[in-house]
Amino acid sequence: MSQAASAVDDQLNHLIRKVESQSQQEQADRLNSQVARASWRIKCWVRVFEDTKICVMQKNDLTIMRLNDTYSVSIGGKHQKNTMTQIRIDTGEVMEAREGLYRDAVPVIDQMKRGYNLFSRYKSQDNGSNVDRKVSLMGFTDAFNDMQLQYRRLESSASAQNF
Questions:
Q1: 118 neighbors 137 (Cβ within 8 angstroms)
Q2: What is the C-alpha to C-alpha distance for residues 63 and 9, in angstroms, rounded to an integer?
Q3: Which of 66, 67, 136, 154 supports an S-S bond with 55, CB 3.0-4.6 Å?
Q4: Is 163 exposed, middle or buried (CB count within 10 Å of its CB: 0-12, 13-18, 19+)?
Q5: pLDDT per residue as tens digits for the range 135-159
Q6: pTM for the full model?
Q7: Stretch 10-26: mean pLDDT, rounded?
Q8: Share of the chain above pLDDT 70, in %
Q9: CA distances (Å), origin 145, targets 4, 7, 90, 149
């Protein structure tokens, strides 16, 4: 085999290995995305008597709730009464809310969609000490989009029941 043919063969083999490597990386990324999405639990339901549709999305002690067209974020549990909870997404600015309930939480959710980790701090009801938590936001956007889809399905099934 000539030196030129050998060089072309080497380039072709290198290209094949590169494509195979990219394909394996894409498969790994897809699997990681599915695992990250699966770490978020979603539950939706309709309260018929109140004409209310609710979706809740949870991971660890972080809860995102959609009640009709209002969003809230809740972090932690067993907060000391009337104390402030602080959250920070990645290196963003600190946001505070009383006892871990962030009302009108669309700005918080928007930051969560772009973030990697949510850090929180609140005072424990048990002993008044600080409780520091870190929640990975991997898969958050996919899960949030799934929650929105499930919510829309509630709307269509609720409309169908009214006829």
A1: yes
A2: 56
A3: 66
A4: exposed
A5: 999 999 999 999 999 999 986 665 5
A6: 0.74
A7: 70
A8: 77
A9: 53, 49, 21, 6
98: Cα separation from own chain's centroid: 22
Are 132 and 138 within 8 A, CB to CB? no
List the structure tokens of 12.
């072709």
Spatial distance between the Cα atoms of 141 and 7, rounded to a whole number of angstroms: 46
| Average pLDDT rounded to a whole number, residues 66-87 | 93
Q: How many whole angstroms separate alpha carbon 150 and alpha carbon 55?
A: 8
